[in-house]
Each structure stands twice: as structure tokens, then as C-alpha cells.
Amino acid sequence: MTRTTTLLFLLLIAAAIWLSWRHYANAKALLQDWAAANGLRILHAKSNALWLAMPLSMWFTTSKYQMVYRISAYDETTHRIRNGLVRLGTPIWGLMNPDAVEVFWDGD
Q1: Which of 14, 34, 64, 93 is the most buried (most CB within 10 A)?
Q2: For 7-36, how does the pLDDT look when each residue is reduced to its tens digit (9 = 90+)?
Q3: Torsion of CA 43, 49, 53, 59, to 10 degrees
Q4: Across all residues in the chain, what is the average pLDDT?
Q5: How many CB atoms are closer than 10 A to CB 47?
Q6: Residues near 105 by Cβ (< 8 Å), separated by ≥ 6?
Q7: pTM, two decimal places
């Protein structure tokens, strides 16, 4: 009985790690797809793990399932570098679909 319990526990841990990795990989892919569709080239993207770096207005509207990235992007149409925050994922489950991208540009 203990071997079965240990095996199930290890499988559960492995599944949780895999699901977390897939969530981050999907967020990164969604960020790249969004940038390409909007004529942007991502120069730097960092997952905003510290909630203190986000504006107060985002604290109350971002769920724990959403990913927030601090980005620098080169805008192909205006030929300038823009900085901002990009929130990815749906508020309830954090599903990474193309409609679940919000950008907050610095200075806008």
C-alpha cells in the first residue's frame, strides 16, 4: 500500500510540474504571437514575479493564474522602443488564448 501511495504522490508532483511548465511555455508563445501580430519585436521580456513592481490598478484586476511580463519592444511602424506591462491569460483559469492579452504601455 505504501508503494502505491508513494507512486501516486510522485505522479501527482510530476503532473503539477509539467502543468506549470506548460503554462509558462504557453504564455511565452502567446507573448511572441501577440508581438508579431502587432508589428512588434520583443527585445526583453521578464516575468513580473514581484507584485510590488506592478501599478496599484493591476493589483486588484490580476488573478493568480494570469502572467504579467515587463517588456521592451521595438515598434516596427514607428521605429521606436516601447516599454510596458503585458498581462496574459484569462482571469479565472489563466487560459492562454489570443483574446486574453492586455498591454499597459509606460507613459500612456
Answers
A1: 34
A2: 999 999 999 999 889 988 988 999 999 999
A3: 120
A4: 87
A5: 14
A6: 82, 83, 84
A7: 0.81
Q: Which long-range contacts does 63-69 make (Cβ < 8 Å, 24+ apart)?
A: 63/89, 63/91, 63/92, 63/94, 65/89, 65/90, 65/91, 65/92, 65/93, 65/94, 66/90, 66/91, 66/94, 67/23, 67/24, 67/27, 67/94, 69/27, 69/31, 69/45
Amino acid at 75: D
Beta bridge partners of 40: 75
Count, residues in the chain: 108
Q: With a cut of 70, which residues of the chain have pLDDT below it? A: 1, 48-53, 108
Q: What whole-number distance in Å separates Cα of residue 94 and Cα of residue 27?
A: 9
Cβ atoms of 90 and 64 within 8 Å: the answer is: no
Which pLDDT belongs to residue 36?
Answer: 95
